[in-house]
Amino acid sequence: MYQPDSLQRLSLGVKENSLSPEDKLGLLIDSFALCQSNYVNVVDVLRLSECFLDETDFSVCGKLVSGLGALRPFVQHLTQGNDQQFNVFLCKSLQKMKSSLGWEAAKDESHATKLIREQILTVLGSCGDPNVVQEASRRFSDYCSKQATLSADITTPVFVTVLSNGDKEVYDKLLEIYDNEDMLEEKNRISGILGLTPNESLIQQTLNFAMSDKVRNQDTVATLAGATWTLQGRQLVWKFVQDNWQELYRRYSTSTMMSRLIKVITDGVCCAETAKQMENFFKAHQVKNAQRAIQQGLEQIATNVAFIHHQGAALMSFLNDQ
Q1: Which residues of the chain have pLDDT under 70?
Q2: Among candidates 164, 114, 177, which has minimal Cα distance to 136?
């Protein structure tokens, strides 16, 4: 377990770049895990994360982004879905990385750098960074009018940004691209992000789309998962699963996909009342090959509820001071 003074010393090592990528990765993994289990103060971990502004290692950047992202459901629960302050913090934390990466790959650029660019621009775009939104919108417009193509490392950032900050026109355009696309990989890219729309009716349309004959059965759960990025989306997905349980059970009761579905509906839930609803639902609708996934999901929700109780106030105080 890290004590505050230990984290301060390690933070200095990160700033001075005296720690190896392996050490920094281990530090982030441990810190975020201990934080979510209430063994380390969330504010200390957030301050630690601010020391990684110049990070260039893909694995370290990936853990930084995913670790911070795992805190989003807590903020959404505490603010009834308004995570604007969290977006401000993320944009502030990742600005320097964005500036050094840009939108265009340099000559002889490494594959890892391309992956970091995709990751950072996607996060900033989904958080509403004004410059990223403006540039992504321009590139999307050029792409749709066939004036330009999108390289592999910026396709997801562009699509995610315009969708999460756009309207029905953008949503419908992405559906059109989906329908006209021949490559399964590209179809899955689009279906997996459609749920990021901020429009409740379009989220519901995405859930219905996931169960339609336009999406392969094995890709339905991934499409549903894409809608759980917001508090509103998680609530809609949970209701949708209950309403469509008979068909979902028919499709997945004998496969490992059922465990994946359970994880999708339990991830990010921070409400004890919802946990009780889920527990009662799965008592009434037994799924023999997913009992372990159900138990793990409920245990994770209990951990989330405990985090809210112990560290929720400190988390929001830190974000409000940004």
Answers
A1: 1
A2: 164
